[in-house]
Each structure stands twice: as C-alpha cells, then as structure tokens.
Design a protein that fits this description.
Chains A, B, C: It is an enzyme of class 2 (transferase). The structure is a homotrimer. In chain A, about 15% of the residues lie in helices and about 30% in strands. The longest helix of chain A has 19 residues. Chains in contact: A-B, A-C, B-C.
Chain lengths: ~350, ~350, ~350
Amino acid sequence: MEFTVQQIADLLQGQVQGDGNAKVNRLAKIEEGAPGALSFLSNAKYEHFLYTTGATAVIVSKNLELKQAVNTNLIQVEDPYTAFSALLEVYQNALAAMREGVEEPCFIGDNSTIGEKHYRGAFSYIGKNCKIGSGVHIYPHVYIGDNVTIGNNTVLYAGVKVYPDSVIGSYCTLHAGAVIGSDGFGFAPQKDGSYKAIPQIGNVVLEDNVRIGANTTVDCATMGSTIIREGTKIDNLVQVAHNVEIGRHTVVAAQTAFAGSSKVGNYCTIAGQVGVVGHISIADRTIVGAKSGISKNIKEEGTFVQGAPAFDYKQNLRAMAVFRKLPELQKQIEELREKL
Amino acid sequence: MEFTVQQIADLLQGQVQGDGNAKVNRLAKIEEGAPGALSFLSNAKYEHFLYTTGATAVIVSKNLELKQAVNTNLIQVEDPYTAFSALLEVYQNALAAMREGVEEPCFIGDNSTIGEKHYRGAFSYIGKNCKIGSGVHIYPHVYIGDNVTIGNNTVLYAGVKVYPDSVIGSYCTLHAGAVIGSDGFGFAPQKDGSYKAIPQIGNVVLEDNVRIGANTTVDCATMGSTIIREGTKIDNLVQVAHNVEIGRHTVVAAQTAFAGSSKVGNYCTIAGQVGVVGHISIADRTIVGAKSGISKNIKEEGTFVQGAPAFDYKQNLRAMAVFRKLPELQKQIEELREKL
Amino acid sequence: MEFTVQQIADLLQGQVQGDGNAKVNRLAKIEEGAPGALSFLSNAKYEHFLYTTGATAVIVSKNLELKQAVNTNLIQVEDPYTAFSALLEVYQNALAAMREGVEEPCFIGDNSTIGEKHYRGAFSYIGKNCKIGSGVHIYPHVYIGDNVTIGNNTVLYAGVKVYPDSVIGSYCTLHAGAVIGSDGFGFAPQKDGSYKAIPQIGNVVLEDNVRIGANTTVDCATMGSTIIREGTKIDNLVQVAHNVEIGRHTVVAAQTAFAGSSKVGNYCTIAGQVGVVGHISIADRTIVGAKSGISKNIKEEGTFVQGAPAFDYKQNLRAMAVFRKLPELQKQIEELREKL
C-alpha cells in the first residue's frame, strides 16, 4: 500500500511542511527511517534523529520548533503519538480486511456454520456442529474440535488448537500454537500407587476481547467451565489449569501458571513466571511481581505482592536487601555471642 | 446421546425416586444443573442445591434423608461419587469409541502399518516404517516421523509432533502441541567461542499409560533413550531434556523442567515450576514443592523438599518465616552492637 | 545404511583389529551395544564395558592396552571421541541429504521462490512473496507467513510457525512447535481500565546458525526487529519478547524468559527458568545461574550472577547457606537480647 504524504496528513487532520506528493509505503522508527518510510517524533529526547533521519516523512507536533533544517517532510499534528497510533490501527485493520477467502484444502465437518467475510487457511480444520461468526480469521493448521462456538472477528493464528465444546467470544486473538481445552490434570490415586485419570467433561469459555499468547495452554474444567473474562490479555507460554477463573481486563505476563480452581479478580496485573496455587482467590486490582508464588488468598483490593511465597512488595524488597548481607549478620551475631 | 433416568439407574444398580422416563443428555454440577442434565450429590455441604437444582436427575446416596421436597428425579445408589465417576468413564469411553475412521486428506508413508478401529484426522501425517497399534486416535495435524512405534489405544491429540524413532506404549495420552523427540540441547564449544551441535542420535521411550500435557517437550537422548516409565503423568508446558529418566507412577505439574540426564524415581510428586539440574538422581516417593530447584541428589525415599536450592520442607517453611522479619532482626543486631 | 568395519576405519583413518568385513548399521553406547552396533571408548572409566559389550565394533585409542581378550572388533584411532563425533556428523549429514523432494498436498503462495534440493513435507504452508534458499527442510505442518525470507540449509521441523515478514538466516534449526513473530505483548490502558492492543508492526530477525528449541516463542518487535544474532542457541519453551536483542554465540537453557526490549550480549550463558526484566542490558560473557531473576543492567563482562533478584554468584551461595540457619540465628539474637 502506497500513500502520498498529503493523504496521510488529511487522514490525521494535519498540515504538510514539505512535499505532499512524496510517497510512503511503510512505518518505521525515526532512527531507522529510510526512503519510503513514515516515522513519528513524540519524545523530545529523540528530536536529534529528526535532522538525520532517512524517512520520507515524519509526524511531529504542530508546536515543535525546528532547531535546524530537515531533509524529510513533516506532518504537523496535535499529538504525534496518538496520531501515529491511530495510523497503525488503520494500517492493521486494512491488512486484516485484505485477508478473506478460503484456501484449499481445508476441512469443515457436518452441520458447522461460519459467517461471511471470513478467512480459512489451507489445512485448517473445523469439526462438526460448530457455530463460527463473521469476519473470523482461521489461519493454516488451526484445529477446531466439534461443538465449538466462536464469535465475530476473532483471529486464530496458525496452529491454534481448540478442543471440542469450547466457547470463544468476539474480537478475541489467539496466537500461534495456543491450546484451548486440553484435559485438566486430575488423577485419582489407586491402591497400588498408580493413578487413574478423572474424566474431564467441562469446557473453556473465553469471553469477548480476550487475547491468548503463543503456545499458552488453557485446560478445560473437570465439570463446568474454565473461564477467562472480557478483555483479559494473556502472554505466551502461560498455563491456565482446570476450573480457573480469571476476571475482566486482567493482564498476565509470560510463563505464569494458575493451578486448578484458582480465581483471579478484575483489573489485576500478574507479571511473568508467577505461580498461583490451586483453590485460592486473588482480589481485584492485585499486582503480583515477577517470579512470585501466591500460596494463599489475597483478600484486599489493590495489594502489591512479591516473593515466593509472596508478601507485601516493599517488605519483600527490604527483606531481600538484608538477605544479601546474611553472612555479615551471622558474623556479627557470633562476635556478640563471644563478647557475652 | 440421550438416556432415560431409569436406564442410568439400571446401569448404576440404583433405584429411581420420581420419573424414570425423564430424559437426560449431559452431565453437570448440581449447582449448574438445567433441564436435561444429570448431576450428583456426594458432599453433604452441597445438599441445599438439591432442593433448588434445575437438573433433571440427581444421583444421591440411598441413605440420604430429604429435608424438603425436590423438583428433580433421584437415583439412589450406594456411593454417589463412585457411581458418578463410573458414569463419567462410561461416557468418555462411549465418546472415544465413536471416533473411528479416516478423514481425508491425510498422509501415511511407505511400509507403515496401523491396527484396526483407529481414527486418523484430516491433515494427520505418518512417516515411513511406522508400527501403530489398534484403537489409536490420531487427531488432525499430528505428525509422526519415520520408524515410530505406538501401542494400542493411545490418543494423540491435535498437533502432537513425534520425531522419528520414538517408541510410545499403549494407553498413552498426548495432549495438543506436545513435542516428543526434539534434539537434546547439546553443543560443543569451539575455540572461537562459537558452538557446534552434538548430533543427537538417541530417541524417546514412553512406556504404557503415560500422559503428556499440552505443549510439553520431551527431547531425545544424545545416545540411548530418554525414558518416561509406566503410568507417569506429566502436565502442560513441562520440559524433559535429553537422557532424562522418569520412573513409574510419578506425577509432574505444569512448567517443571528436568535438565539433561537427571533421573527421577517412582511414585514421586513434583509440583509446578520446579527445576531439576542435570545428572542428579531423585529417590522414589520424593515430594518436591512448587518452584523448587533441585541441585543435588535426593537419596532418601519419601523426602519432602522445598526451596531453590531445595532442602527439607519444614525447615524451609521456618526459614521463610524468619526471612520476612530480616529487617527487624538486622535492627536488633545493631541495637545489641551499640549496647556492647 | 550398512558399512563394513573396514569402511569405517578407512573413513576415520584408523586401523582394524579383528574382522574388517563385519557389518555395522547403527551407533550405540558401549554399555548398550548389540550385534550391528558401532560404539566408542573414550573415558578410561568405561573400559570394563569393552570386555563385555555386544557391539560389533568399538572405536578405541591406538594407545589403549587391552587388559583381557575382547569379543568385538576394534578400530584404533588417534582420539576416539573426536573420531566418533566426526562419524556422528557424517551420519547425520547423510540422513539429512536423503530428505529431499515434495510431499503432497502442500501449499505455496503466489510469487514465492524456493531453492534447489529442498524438502517440503505434506501439509506444509508457504505464503506469498517468500524467498527461501536451497537445501532447506520444511517438515509437515510448518507454516510460513507472507514475505518471509529464509537462507540456505535451514531446517524447520514439524509444526514450526513463522509469522509474516520474518527473516531467518542460513543453517538455522527451528524445532517442532516453535513460534517466530507472534505479536509483542503491548497494550495501552484505557480510561475505563480496559486495554487496547498496540499494533505490532515490526518483525523477527534470526541470523545464521541460530537454533530455536521446541515450543519456544519469539515475538515480533513493536517497530523494528526482535533480533537473535549469529550462532546463538536457544532451548525449549523459552520466551523472547518484542524488541529483545540477543547477541552472538549465546546459549539459553529451557523455560527462560526475556521481557520486552531487553538486550543480551555475546558469548553469554543463561541457565534454565531465568527471567530478565524489560529494557535492561546484559554484558558479554555474562553467566546467569538457573532460576535467577535479572532486574537491572549487568555492565561488567564475565559477571556470574545467581538469585532472584540476582547478584554475585558466590555471595548468593553464602547468603543461601545462612538462610537455612535463620531460625537458629533468630534464637541466638533472642538469647542475646535477654542477656542484655
């Protein structure tokens, strides 16, 4: 896609300083700009790049006062960051809209329906009795088991695996290799010390606007549903066990794990490599620092914890600071004991 | 599948209280019961749900004395939990038995054989010279490399990848995205600081009744075999490196990693996010707490460890309790020093 | 492939002691040798196996003095370990060279090119406008998005997913289920507490000789590139976030995670289950112990750190040793306080 600088300025309700007929065909950081690229300058710290950039055009604040001449064309707007973000979104939506149609071979089982304007990649698989909305993108090697429901405009990237009976909302994004609905990890110990699998007959429910990262796994419930609520964003390689419930608009970073039947509130922020034990609850707006282990209920909203097991963030910082000096403290205690 | 309440009662050798002709077509928790659902009541704590449930039928103890009238139909049995578990198993076996046949297109290489009553999903791939048993379920997008052996009644869910020369037993379950037999992570440092891959010519052996979780990875041995023995259950996103041996009937929770050549005993319980360093041994019946790091041999059977590095569980609990108070202890030491 | 012992000896410039016409068809550990197997003896510790091995031939040092008679055939060389490694490499290269051709069905989009002597497995997918070199192996269920570039002799094992616009060098190895180019985890908080995805328009660049483990995920950059430089080796289930840069010839063990925009130097060794926070730099030749959390810049080359948060390795060891004794130290402090 190629645009003139003037077209971009019109879209952003900005003013052109320079050649409005110059053409741009991609976006780039200002320090990496090359002919054909459109960049933006928001943070004053990077202003020096404006005078050396190879980009064909740069979106700048209309209040910016140039300190020297520029070789690029300027698009002056109210707020360059917002303008650029808006542009990015237009760009991505345009790219997404271009992806429509069905590549062969692909597989769709009996009695399954799918809405209009969708994309189904080659080697994608849809089982029986599925109800799939419109505008959905199903990339190559996606597997959708029987009886799955998917809302409108949801995107399943290459190789996503959705087990039977899962329910996925609208405007969800599932990244490559994510697994939705694998069996919960439940086994009944037998008298001889072996284990017998407890049948897992529940499912997974992802509400609208949920985002699941690459190679993340979400197990189905033993009975009932494992639920991830509206707007929650989950990073790569996260484990969500059976019967877990994660609230609305919560963010979970990479490699975190939630054990069976744990409940996470709304508007929480869970950093990376965190572990949450089973059958506990975490209040709304909780913040959990990286690598923490949550071993008991967090009842108070807005708590910030750190450590394994986790406790108050600041208290943990102070304890860690002393931890480093433990050999010294030990020596001091010995000296004291000798003196007495 | 639809059954009458009487049919279920007959299967469970129970008595119907109410309408034996009422029809049920799925299983549900008692608190989530709706028309058509069959539930059970085992724990007295949930008895109040019995009087409000929307389920069409509920399996109850024959000794239960009703405190008020019920709107549902009762199936009275000796032990509701056992009865319901038995039913679940019948249900899952029935579902599994229904899955048979071959969906096209799928790929099978020269000289490979597969037993009767199997399922092969569309886009599944079987290489050359494979020997695959009867009753095996191979879901869509499964890849089975050359010279692989698989026993009877093993299930490979969508997108499982099995490298050449792997040996998989009977009644194994491999969940979506699991990788069996990827190269061990072994590199010989060169004089210039670069690395050269050490060829990995071993394989992976999974004995009977092994369960591998979604997106778990099991590397092949450098030479010889990486082995997971009979009945061992492994959760999602676990890493099993080259030449690891895990004993019989051991349970491993999500995101745990075993480094190269580590050996784990029988009947162990390894919690989530544990790390085990290479070339060490863990005795039978060892219990390892979540997030622990095992850095040396555990020689005594039945040991329970916690921490990174791990030591005795109770000792670790006590040390962690003091850890939180370190700033206070430091202050006390300072005070003591001032006094002296 | 079958060879005579003499053929192997000629290849390794060694001398046969025994029957040069005996035939070998596979490699095995000396303690697991069986008829047809070729083994080697390098470490004197294993010499006793030489007198009992069932292997048809064993590569030994020409300086080895036998302590008793052997039932196997010897190939005497300068350095058995080097000779065997060389043989392994010949063996693997021969296996690799055998894999050539195209299995159907497979998919290749408009305007994509691929060099000679390549392998494309059934159900592999290549998008539009891709440039793929010669000698490349693309296993079944590999997905390569639009506009991807791949150098010569790179191997993508089954189910690797490469998002559009990625750039992959020559002689790279990507193990099964690896995901290259999934969206970076970036969201702009909205006034109502919900999140809006920040479009991720960058890509991933893997330079030559990079190795990516099974089910590892490498996110694309928000803008610009996430880069893994020449010769770096990454294990299974590792997370590399958006805009991360990892230097040359660095080794990263399983389940480690690099948060957004972190920079790792050349020749580093990062153990397993490590976490690196965003926007920090790690100097060349840094060594990071298992399970560590790197929370600030490491500026000095060759630093060895451990712990979460990480600090000097030896200092951490000493602190951990005291940590175990904390309950005892607490008691000593109490006693001191009572005395005063």
